Write the C-alpha cells for this entry.
Amino acid sequence: MEDRSPVSPPTVRAYMAAVATATVALFVAGIVLPLAPGGDDAAVRVSPTTFLLAGGIVFAIALSLRFPLQLTYRTKVSVDTAPLFVAAIVFPSPVAMITAALGVAVHHLLGRADDEETIFNTAQTAFYVGVGGATYHAANGLPLPAVPGEMVAVAGATVAMHVVNSLVVSTMGALQVGTDPMRAWSRGLHLDLPEHAVLSAVGALGVWIGREQPWLLPILLVPIGLAHLSLRRGIAVRAATQAEVETLAALGELRDATWTGHAAAVGAVAEGIARRMGVNEGDTAAIVAAARVHGVGRMISPHDRRRKRPAPATADRHHATAGAAFIARFPAYALAATFLRSFQEHWDGSGHPGRLRGEAIPLGARILAVADAYDAAQRGGDRIAPLSPDAALDRLRGEAGTRWDSAVVAALAAVVDGDPDATPARAVPAPSPRPADRPHVEARLDAASRP
C-alpha cells in the first residue's frame, strides 16, 4: 500500500520554483552559448519575419488550447502539440520558448486561471519546448549514411518533448497526492504518446509544406475545418437525442417520489463497478448510458400501463426488451441497447429473454443488473421495506453465483467499502454522460495522479 499522505503546499511551491528556474536557465543558455567564442550567433538573430511568424504561432497555440478538436463523440484532443512543435523546429530555442510561453499564458489569462496554475503551465511548456528545440537543432544535419538527418532530428525532438513534458507533469501530480513521482511517471508515460507523435508529425509536415509550397497551407485547412464543423453538428444532434430519451425514461420516476433519481443512481453505481473491473472507457460510457434509460421500457410497454408506481426493471420481463428495442433505433445507443436487452438474464440461466448463462451474458448487462438491484433494494416498493446499503449488499451476496455474477457483486462490494478509485455506491443524480475529454498532457494544480 502506497503512502498517500498529503504533501505540504511549500513542497509543491518549491517544485514549481524549481521548474521555473530550470526554464530560465535553459533560456539563458540558449542565448549565451551561441554568443560564446566559436558559437553561431546567427542562431539568436531575429528578423521581422520571425516576429510575424511567432505571433501567428502564439495565436495558434492559444486557440488550440481554448478549443480542443472533437475527434469522435466521446473524444476531444487539444492540438497545441502541433504549433508547439512547429515553434521548436523553426525557431532558435530561446525564441521557441518565448513563443510557447506566450501562447500558454494567453490561454490561461483568457480563461482566468489562477496565478500559480498559469505560472507553472507556462514554465513547464516553455521548458519542454526548449528541450525539444535544442534536440532538433543538435541532431539536424548529422552525417548519417542511411537516414536523413532531419528525420532523425524530428523523431528526437518528438521523443524529447514527450518524455520531458510527461515527467514534469507527473511529478507535480505525484507531489500533490503524496505518491512516488517516478512510478507515476512510468505509468503515465504512454498515455498521450500516440496523439503527441501524430500531432508532432502534423507540425513537421506543415513546416515542410510551408517551405516548399506555402500556398497549399490555407487550401488544406478548408476541408479540415468543414469536417470538424460537420462532426460537431453531428455530436450536437446525438447529445440532444440522448437528452430526450433520458427525459422520457425519467417520466416513469415521477409517479412515485421514492424512485426519483433511480436511473441516475444506477448509472453512478454501474460506473463505479465498471471502473473497478477495468472496463474500457467506451463500454463504461455505454453501460452508464443504458443505466440512465433502463426504465424507458416502462413508458412504452403495454404491460406496465396499469401499474401505479414503477418497479425495478428486473421485476418485469417486458421492460428491458421493450426499452432495448426502442433505444436501438438511435445510433448513440447501439451498444447500450445490447446491455439493456440482456440485463434481466441470470447467471444460472434462469433469466430472460434468452435464458443466457454465465459469461454468455454481456458484462455490461451483468453490471447493469447488479447496480439496478442494489439501488432498488434500498428504495423498497409495494409492501417491501427499503434496506440499508449493507443489507442490500448482503442480499446480492446471497444470490451471487445464481442470479448475479459473483465477480460483479465483489466489485460492487469494493465500491461500497469506499475504494478510492471507484464511484460512491449511492450517488445523487448525475448529469448526462458527456463526451470524455482527452487533452494534451498539461499540468493542472487541482489534478490528482493515480499511482
User: Anything to note?
Assistant: The chain has a mean pLDDT of 77.
